[in-house]
Design goal:
Layout (H helix, E strand, L loop, with lengths): L1 H16 L5 E3 L2 E3 L11 E4 L8 E5 L1 H14 L5 E5 L2 E5 L2 E2 L4 E5 L3 E5 L8 E2 L15 E2 L3 E4 L2 E7 L2 E4 L3 H9 L10 E4 L2 E6 L1 E4 L6 E4 L3 E2 L2 E2 L2 E4 L2 E3 L16 E11 L5 E3 L4 H7 L3 E12 L3 E5 L7 E21 L7 E22 L17 E22 L6 E11 L10 E4 L1 E9 L6 E2 L12
Parallel strand pairs: 3-5, 4-6, 5-8, 6-9, 7-12, 8-13, 9-14, 12-15, 13-16, 14-17, 15-18, 16-21, 17-22, 21-23, 22-23, 23-25, 24-26, 25-27, 26-27, 27-28, 28-29, 29-30, 29-31, 30-32, 32-33
Antiparallel strand pairs: 1-2, 10-11, 19-20
């Protein structure tokens, strides 16, 4: 028994330690190989269970019957549930392990707008309450809890949350509970989401949470070749939010939403500190999009800690912030080893933002002495045109953010005589080949410090 347990732990150690050794297919570097695509030996169609794709018939029973069949017959190798072309209106539903949800070209799974009867579930323990309202939260439209070996894919079919009714409730302050995400996996492993369009989520779009260690086995999530769309004024419609999760691969996607395109999180103030599950080994690569907020974000809920995040080959336009590292007093947690490289941005308000005063609190029980620890941020090979402000970097007094490296960065302003400016406080690091010149807090050469490997 001990030998078997040791083998599992050793497997986990080597998988996580080698996560940065990415696979290459031709000239394309990818991390998607951490979860192999499963060939299903058993195929069924939603129409076999009474599914009707006319956009009016309610298909909730059809989806639940089909998934019940997959769960209880347990075909060897799992089962593929095929959704043919058509519009399939349905309430929220749960997935099961060892299944593929396959959307054919022209297939749309559309959420009902029957908000009073939307199922409620318990708040996430690392948040202590719903993110928007006290108490529980509405279940995500497509949900999975404690699952393994699940694939959502197809021929660029659409999952449509019809979120406008939820956005209006948020604007009018009539929400009773926190809005549902479009897709959420909790405590799950071996998840692949690819070749699907997500549209008009009520809240966050794709939310893998606690996909870290399940029964001492390593957990992996791959999100690739997806398109995520929501209007720029849709509130809190984050694209992809890895949350207290490890070994997450996000690649080759287009995201245009009303909030951060990708935001790494790990719990909220005293609840996240107590739950203590960090996010780590997360790769974001070849993502393009626009947003009024940030293209790549860490936070602001980071109380479990965030480390070893790599974001590269990112293209942003018409956006609020290029890179945003955000936390607050009371968060606690450690943010370290964050690298953003090969980032291009156009028409952006602020190129780089690092802030220690961002985000609200779940209640008044947070500890004001729980200061976040932020170090070892590397921002390199970044270009921007029509950038209004180059950088805004403010740490926390008595908790200076350290080890920040700015390397090979050029940010051109809008037309006018003055270049975009930097504004800094409680920050310490180094800068090499940065234009316009950053704040005095960044030394020009620091061979043994922040930018030693880039000198």
């Amino acid at each position: 028994m001990f030998r078997a347990l040791a083998s599992v732990l050793l497997c986990c150690f080597f998988l996580e330690a080698s996560f940065w050794v990415h696979f290459s297919y031709g000239d394309l570097t990818t991390c998607s190989g951490i979860v192999p695509m499963t060939e299903r030996g058993d195929n069924i169609s939603i129409t076999d269970f009474g599914g009707v794709g006319d956009g009016q018939t309610l298909n909730t029973i059809a989806f639940r019957k089909a998934i019940y069949r997959i769960q209880h017959l347990r075909r060897r190798g799992g089962t593929l549930l095929f959704v043919p072309s058509g519009v399939y209106l349905t309430d929220s539903f749960n997935l099961t392990s060892h299944m593929t949800l396959y959307l054919a070209r022209g297939a749309v799974i559309k959420a009902t707008q029957d908000t009073p009867n939307w199922p409620l579930i318990a708040p996430l323990p690392s948040y202590g309450r719903g993110r928007e309202r006290p108490g529980g939260r509405y279940m995500s439209f497509i949900h999975g809890d404690g699952l393994e070996d699940v694939v959502i894919t197809g021929e660029n079919g659409t999952i449509d949350g019809q979120g406008d009714i939820w956005w209006n409730m948020w604007r009018q302050r009539t929400l009773q509970f926190t809005r549902p995400s479009l897709v959420e996996f909790v405590n799950s492993r071996g998840i692949v989401i690819s070749n699907v369009i997500f549209r008009n989520s009520p809240f966050w779009n794709v939310h893998p949470v606690y996909c870290r260690y399940l029964f001492l086995l390593c957990s992996n999530v791959v999100i690739r070749y997806v398109t995520i769309l929501a209007p720029p004024d849709s509130p809190n419609t984050d694209g992809i939010d890895p949350d207290s999760s490890s070994n997450v691969c996000i690649e080759d996607s287009f995201i245009s939403t009303g909030d951060d395109l990708v935001a790494v999180k790990s719990g909220w103030d005293e609840y996240g500190i107590a739950y203590g599950r960090p996010s780590s080994y997360i790769t974001v690569r070849r993502v393009t999009g626009s947003t009024p907020f940030a293209g790549v974000a860490v936070g602001s809920e980071t109380s479990g800690g965030v480390e070893n995040v790599l974001a590269e080959n990112i293209n942003l336009y018409n956006s609020g912030v290029g890179v945003h590292i955000k936390t607050n007093i009371g968060r606690g947690g450690v943010i370290k080893n964050i690298t953003v490289s090969e980032l291009f941005m156009e028409n952006v308000r602020t190129g780089i933002k690092v802030a220690g005063d961002t985000g609200d609190h779940p209640d008044n029980n947070f500890n004001p002495n729980a200061l976040p620890y932020v170090k070892d941020l590397t921002l390199k090979n970044i270009w921007g045109v029509n950038v209004q402000r180059a950088g805004w970097m403010h740490g926390i007094e008595n908790a200076t953010f350290t080890g920040i490296c700015l390397s090979n960065i050029t940010l051109q302003g809008t037309t006018g005589p003055r270049p975009p400016s930097w504004n800094c406080n409680a920050i310490r690091g180094a800068a090499i080949e940065v234009n316009p010149r950053p704040c005095a807090e960044f030394t020009s050469v620091e061979q043994s410090g922040s930018c030693a490997s880039h000198s």
